[in-house]
User: Fold these one by one.
Assistant:
Number 1:
Amino acid sequence: MNSYLFFLGQNSLLSQAELTSLIPEAKLTTPHQSIVKLDSPTSLDLPSLGCRLGGTVKIAVLKQTSSAKQLQDDLVKLLLDQQAKNFSLNLLDATNQESYELSNEVKQRLVDNQLRTRFIAPTSTGISPVIITKQKAVELTIDSDFNIYQTTWVHSFKSWINRDRRKPFVTPKSGMLPPKLARIMVNLAVGDKDPGGLTLLDPFCGTGTILMEAALQGIKVIGSDLSADKVAGTKTNLDWLDENQACAPLKPATVFQANATNLKDQLVDQIDLIVTEPTLGPASPSQDKLSDIAHGLQKLYLGALKHWALFLKPQARVVIALPIFHGQDRSYTTADFIDARENLGYNTLRNDLIFTRPGAQIERQIVVLEKQ
Ligand SMILES: C[S@@+](CC[C@H](N)C(=O)[O-])C[C@H]1O[C@@H](n2cnc3c(N)ncnc32)[C@H](O)[C@@H]1O
């Protein structure tokens, strides 16, 4: 059995769902709120798996299993073997003080062995990918069974920031998904299939965030939007992605103007997946209008789902981010119509995933559907 620790991003439930979707055979346990231990019968190709994930920031591999008595000796040997100039020890089951004392003792023994070294104090999830990369730090994580894991992969923070902040076409007022959430949604749809053989549609594509995250995985992407400006902007963003971010040329994308409830006739390709964040209604809605807005949106979403059922392949997945509006007295969800309607043509695989930010008035419920 091969064991790994996955250090999750801000929303650990979504990040775990992404892992389960991509590696359904893996056994997951949670030694810490933001860390998942993954046991796999086969060894994982971490660089290629890591690059696909939106919800994981670091991955550590089991190096050896130690014991309370042997731990200090084993850590010293591991760090000496690697001539670690910077190191960090993250004890999942210890207090900060215990961690600090062990790090100090280990450092002293390394110095006694002629290694000029420095330890970096961790937070509860270790040290950041930026520090690991920039300071070439060796990070070791020790769990309650004295398993010692070494961080061997960290996410490419620069390219995530670039895609979040530097794409040429943005529309802050009508809302854009964070790229990491878009990537997680794509992975919830792809599952354990080969992304290179799939075609994905985003019928409310906006600035193209979802299409960009899918295209980077070799998926053929199709986008549409009611607004001609958004169609042009999505094309601009996909061209920018191709020139600035992609390791290999992206597959040619198709983007056109259409109403999401009536686009079938403009499709040439078969659609394997729909991943989308539909319109959330007017920006800054007034409290007394929330109920009507939620009701109106449900009608649009219902019409769209019925229309999509006409051209999706059987077992095709739809991953859709539906708003939950928080009013002063109550909240209005917009996803409940799906399970209330019989004969809609979809099975609900998940509806328990919520994306939220502190103080947010609108949350997103990520619903995963499968065409019957
Ligand atoms: C919340 S935005 C999508 C944002 C996108 N996920 C992004 O990250 O840029 C919703 C989009 O739906 C479009 N829209 C609104 N009503 C539509 C309809 N009936 N059919 C298709 N697109 C529609 C809007 O123009 C807007 O671009």
Number 2:
Amino acid sequence: MATKSGITATTGTVTSAGSGTEGAAVAKALDERAGADHARWEFRDRKTLLYALVGNDFGPEPETRLDEIREYKKNESKFLLDALKPNACDRVIDLGSGFGFIARVVAPLVERVWCLDISSEFLECAKEELRGFANVEFQQMDFADLRFLAGKGITKGYANAVFIHFNFFDITLYLRQLFEILEPGGLFVFGMSDTDTLDITSDRYFGVVLEKYKENRRSPVLMHWNSAKAACRAAEAVGFRAKNACSGGGSAMILLEKPEKEVALGQAPAEELTSAFCQWRNTTAALINQARNLCIRYPKDRDARYALAESLRGAGMDDLAIGEYQALLQDCPGNERQRAEQGWRNARRIEVIFRRFLRSGFRPRNMRRDTTRKCGAHTLGGKSNEGGKLFAWCGK
Ligand SMILES: C[S@@+](CC[C@H](N)C(=O)[O-])C[C@H]1O[C@@H](n2cnc3c(N)ncnc32)[C@H](O)[C@@H]1O
């Protein structure tokens, strides 16, 4: 069976492949069918379509083993269902639905399924396979064009054994389209062939596909390997949260989530801001504690007191920093005066600017996009609030 390292959802056809002489026969059938249009995954007859779907895994007459193929696809769909957890309100796309074997499992669980395919022949097969299902729609699509789904309220989707045929440009184009049509909070999962975990000497498919590639480098039905890490980064650049949900043996399953609130282009995602803020707060809090302890243990050490004053200032607690500098100035040796006054002035300047902000009607809110709320910091207004000032200035 076309199962790689237990990540069945990421496999499927090695179109034009399979191994040994049987594999070669399948390859020939796929290549030589008169009138076939590989760019659109049209192969003229059902047997060849099935070859394109499952390779040689079900022998030379896959059309006689449909029940086994259905069962096999049902097993594959478990990975997708686990990742998507579909419910009765979900409106789901099956991108590259093939014979509709997976949509058959998903349709009873959700409100509506759109079977989308670049191939009219595959769509006809899916229509036949799913004729008993009232909540399934069928749509032939152009390459990387999902605009017709805009406004349809798509909450989830999957592509099984489809992205394994994409190069990195294709992946990027589809990611962009998916981001456009998914509802905020929407999920999409896809399997891909993954160079990050690929061993070219032992991989079951790689060598076979390599030979086919030598014969026809432009065949759109060949498998393509891409880096799962790079795919996740591309998805994140598009706006998704991306997770490599499962990987190994040259395959990966990527789960995408469209954030609830879209982050405007050029703005940092709220989670990243929150994480940066928390890290800053923890670091500054640790510094302050360390300096305080030093001052307690060595009350006469003025450098320890400067360290405390500076860490308070760095944490945005300028009112406390001012107090520390004032204390340092009280018994200040002449050669140190400049240092203490400079510190005091810096802290005071920030404090004055802050007060001016407040007087001019600036109402400090939590950090941009509620990031402080998430990490538990509070709004400004009170004093010495763990450096909220710095971030509050970002607010408008
Ligand atoms: C290997 S089959 C997988 C079918 C199905 N997802 C399954 O797992 O049984 C690949 C399917 O993706 C479709 N396909 C290939 N390229 C596509 C594209 N760029 N856009 C949409 N569908 C595509 C093919 O027509 C075919 O139905």
Number 3:
Amino acid sequence: MGAAAQDRLTPAGVSESAVMKAAILVESLTGHTWKAAEMLAGKLSQEHWSITGLTRMRQPDHAAIQEADVVLIGTWVHGFFVVGQAPWGLSTIAALPSMRHKKAAVFCTFALDPGKSLDKMTRAASTLGVEVIGGLALNRGKLPEHTEIFAERLVAAAHSP
Ligand SMILES: Cc1cc2nc3c(=O)[nH]c(=O)nc-3n(C[C@H](O)[C@H](O)[C@H](O)COP(=O)(O)O)c2cc1C
């Protein structure tokens, strides 16, 4: 039987071989980033992605990461609101297991101004050997809208060669 013939269809009619699998790793102090991660998981599931795990970055689910095509890394912005902003837990990102040959995307939640937090997260994630395909800073007061935009961009980026 040829490879194409082995493809099974999910109830939604999507070929299983085309289903994108994502693991989500999060740092969250007061819950906004966790909420954003849950919203993202919901929106990506609607796009027929499979979420292999949603866990705290400090206790990464190694099996979920192993299984994933894309790893989403999220945290929150700390600083002095208009200066000195940085993503919380940069060293935790850099300490994650190597993820060679996987794609990754980064996101952070913020209140006022994320500064260059995304750039810093992208650099930290890149040290893990991943290809960073995107990132978005999400205003904590606009999580439904901003997670929608992020999910749309992820779907487009992950499926492009
Ligand atoms: C100590 C502290 C410092 C913060 N500094 C900033 C900041 O510099 N810029 C900003 O936009 N938001 C700042 N925030 C707001 C958080 O980034 C925002 O509330 C975020 O959504 C919190 O995520 P969490 O609920 O997942 O912990 C700060 C929050 C705290 C607690």
